[in-house]
Automatic annotation (TrEMBL):
Annotated source species: Bradyrhizobium ottawaense
CDD domains linked: PRAI
Protein name: N-(5'-phosphoribosyl)anthranilate isomerase
SUPFAM superfamilies xref list: Ribulose-phoshate binding barrel (SSF51366)
Family statement: Belongs to the TrpF family.
Keywords, alphabetical: Amino-acid biosynthesis, Aromatic amino acid biosynthesis, Isomerase, Tryptophan biosynthesis
Lineage: Bacteria, Pseudomonadati, Pseudomonadota, Alphaproteobacteria, Hyphomicrobiales
Length: 223
C-alpha cells in the first residue's frame, strides 16, 4: 500500500499548484474561521476546481452543522470530510448517510486513554487521523505544529487505514512512520514560513522526505 501524503491548510493557487506538482495525494482545505488557514466558500470553490482529480480534496471541519457541510459540499465537492471536532459516532454516521462521502475522524492524542474512543469511530469512519491533542486554551483543535508521543501508537491494532499528524516536518516524519506504522502523513505548520503561509520549498521537501521514507521501508520489507 503506497504511503499517503496530505498537505493540509492550503489557501492559495500557487501553493496548491506546488503541492499537486510535488505529488501530494491529499490536499486539505480548512473551513474553520478561527484558523489562519480558513477558506471562504468562494475560495474553496476556486481551489477545488484547480485540483482536477490530481489529488483527493479533503474538507476539514470542526463540529460543523448540516447547513455548513451542505455549503462546503456545494462549493468544494470534497472527496473526504475530515471531522476534527468532538463529533460523536452517531454524527459520523449521519454525515456519511447525508453526504455519501468518506469521513476521516481526527483523534486527538495526549495519553493512552485517548485511544479508548477508537472502537466506536473505527466502526463508522473510513480512516483515522491521529493528531496531537490541543492544549485547553488553544483557539483550534489542530494545526498547532506540536507532536504527540508516537510510541502511544506502537502497539496499535487498527483494521482501519490511519494517518499520523501533529508537528510533522521533513526531518521527523520518517521516525513518526517507523514508530506508528501509519499509512499516511499529514502536515500543516511544518510546511509553513508563518501560520497559514505555506512555503513551496518546504512542501517539496516534506513530500520528498515522505517518498524517501516509503522507498526505504519497501526495501527493508523485501530483504
Ligand atoms: O490546520 C488548522 O488550522 C486546523 C484548524 C482546526 C482544526 C484542525 C486543523 N488542522 C487539522 C489538520 O489536519 C492538520 O494538518 C493537523 O492538525 C496537523 O497540523 P500541524 O501540527 O500544524 O502539522
Amino acid at each position: 500500500m503506497s504511503l499517503l501524503v496530505k498537505i493540509c491548510g492550503l489557501s492559495t493557487r500557487e501553493t496548491l499548484q506546488m503541492a499537486l506538482e510535488a505529488g501530494a495525494d491529499m490536499v486539505g482545505f480548512v473551513f474553520f474561521p478561527p484558523s489562519p488557514r480558513h477558506l471562504s466558500l468562494e475560495l474553496g470553490r476556486d481551489l477545488g476546481r484547480q485540483v482536477k482529480g490530481r489529488a483527493l480534496k479533503v474538507a476539514l471541519t470542526v463540529d460543523a452543522d448540516d447547513a455548513t457541510l451542505d455549503n462546503i459540499m456545494d462549493a468544494l465537492s470534497p472527496d473526504i470530510f475530515q471531522l476534527h471536532g468532538k463529533e460523536s459516532v452517531a454524527r459520523l454516521r449521519d454525515i456519511k448517510q447525508r453526504f455519501g462521502r468518506p469521513v476521516m475522524k481526527a483523534v486527538p492524542v495526549a495519553t493512552a486513554a485517548d485511544l479508548a474512543v477508537l472502537p466506536g469511530y473505527a466502526a463508522i469512519a473510513d480512516r483515522i487521523l491521529f493528531d496531537a491533542r490541543a492544549p485547553k486554551d488553544a483557539t483550534r483543535p489542530g494545526g498547532l505544529g506540536e507532536p504527540f508521543d508516537w510510541h502511544l501508537l506502537e502497539n496499535l491494532d487498527l483494521k482501519l487505514p490511519y494517518m499520523v499528524s501533529g508537528g510533522l516536518h521533513a526531518d521527523n516524519l520518517a521516525e513518526a512512520l517507523r514508530v506508528t506504522r501509519a499509512g499516511g502523513v499529514d502536515v500543516s505548520s511544518g510546511v509553513e514560513s508563518a501560520p497559514g503561509v505555506k512555503d513551496p520549498e518546504m512542501i517539496k521537501a516534506f513530500i520528498r522526505a515522505a517518498r524517501a521514507s516509503q522507498e526505504s521501508s519497501q526495501e527493508l520489507s523485501v530483504r
